[in-house]
Structures are given as structure tokens and as C-alpha cells.
Give the backbone structure.
Amino acid sequence: MGVNDYGIKVWNEDGELLLDVGDTIGRRRYTANVDQNADGNTTLSDISGKSTFQFAYDISQGLMGTTMGHLVTRSGTTISWTNRSGPHYEDSQVFVIIYD
Amino acid sequence: MAVTDYGIKTINSAGQTQVDCNYITFQNIKTSSASITVGSQWVDTNLTSSNLGVSEIPLIGLRADASYYNCHWGFDSASGIYKLFKCWPEGSFTVYYCVFSVKTATDESYGVALYDSNGVLTFNSGSDPFKIVNIFSDSAAKGDTNNHTVSDAVNNYFILTNPSWEIDGSGTFLRGFKRTSTTNVRVSTYQFSVVTGASSNWENSYNLIEIKNPLVF
């Protein structure tokens, strides 16, 4: 079966192609607001064999300095977040984006 | 009924799920630009709670500048919504950015809308979804340079994860990205300022995510 007869296409009301059969789409699998002093992890059994990327944003309040969010890693189906090793770290929003 | 046996899903030509009734799709809610100058600073997207949502933290993609390195570190939560994001530009230029968030309601009567088993909107054809073109997983210690061959270094947007900095007595050094050609994005270290002392918050690993330039309606 060729690509052209596979999948689905979605156009918007202006006739622009919004979703094509070759597109890879990022969806929200997991988010968490984590405290600056807390390391943690969660198990997401449904991401087994699936592709994700994960990261954290610093969500400090009004700080312009060199603060930063947690380091987020994946091992199997476990997502872990840890404070960065340096002197300035902050509350974070952890994202796990699934694209598979 | 389990979520997995509810609704419909679309599969791309590589066999990957694109949109379904399980997970909420990030969709474009704004593309814009702002003038920024060297240093750490906030960029105001001017989004409001009505289009961003009070508790939603969006994804920000930045275009790669041709002259200066830049990186995105996070958001200011002081205003109650996450409309301000922080950059560390190497120089003064116009930064082009796009914002993706989850949408709670479809904004048109045309096309496709998918909902999960709780009635939460997971995708609609009212705005462009978050399209991943490439993901580069790499490592760069301070001073290292990596070149990544991308699909479109001019028009596409990028997320560089794991921002890093180090003060070594001769200056403050950051990791950022810029474009060196229409198909190359360079991740490297740039000097921000001269600061005495020594401290470090550097993480070698990073992901550079290339996001397709969204349709703007």
C-alpha cells in the first residue's frame, strides 16, 4: 500500500492541510509541577515501546537570574526528575511528550 | 470502558499514532516576534487566561537567529498565567516564537474534533498541531560545538532542552543555538558577560527538537 492511500488528512476551513499522513504529532502524556527541593519519579506503563521526549521548564516567579528547571530522564517506563547539580534551581514544570 | 478502546485515532505512514482520544494534542495558539537585547529577559506573549488557560504552561519554539545564539529557560509564573518566557540572547535581534498549548474547546464548526472518554477535547481542526520534524539527542560540554542538519533552519522553530551555564572566572558561558545555513543549526557555548567567581550548572545532554512552522490563520 502506498503512502498516498494510507492514513487520514485533515484540512481547516480555509482549505489548508492541517494534518498529513506523514506528520509526527506531539501530544501531552504527562505534566507535573514539581518543587525545587524535590526529586521524584513516576511510572507511565503505557509508554512502553513508545517514543517520547521529556524536559522541564523553570517556572520561577519573576527571577531573571541563572535559575533553571529540573533534569528529566527516562528509563524504560519510568520518568525521573532531579534537581540540577548547580547552585540555582527552581520549581519546574515537567513535560513528557509522546509522539508514537 | 478503558480509554484505549474509545474513539478513533490516526496513524501516520511510519505507523505512529498522530492524534487520538487518549492524549491531548498540543496545538498552535500563537506565532509572533519580539525585539530582544543581550542578556536575560522576559518576552511577553501577551496571551491571556482566555486563550492560554490559567494553569496551562505552553510549549515555546524559537526560530534560530542567523547571528546570535539564544536559548529559552522557562516561564514567569508571577502573573498567575504563563505568558512570559525567559530568553538569554547573545545579542540584540528579533526573536520569532510560536506557542503551543492544549485547547479546551473547539473554535470552529467545521472539520474534526476528537474528545476523550471524559469529554475533554484532544484534537480539533481549528489550529495547527505540534508537528515534530526532527529530534536530535546529543551531548555538549562547555566549549563543545555540535552541528545538526535540519529540515528548515530558517522557517522552522526549535526547542533546546537542558539549558546550561557556567561561570569560570573569565566570564559567564551559556549553551544556545543559532543557524549557520538554511539547513544547519549549531548548538554551542557563547559568552554572556564577564563575572568573577566560579560556579556551574551545566548538563551535557540535551535534545534539540525541530518543530514545523505552523500554519497561521
Q: What stands out?
A: The two ends of chain A are 21 Å apart (CA to CA). The beta strands of chain A are 10-11, 17-19, 27-34, 40-43, 52-58, 71-75, 78-82, 92-98. The mean pLDDT of chain A is 88.
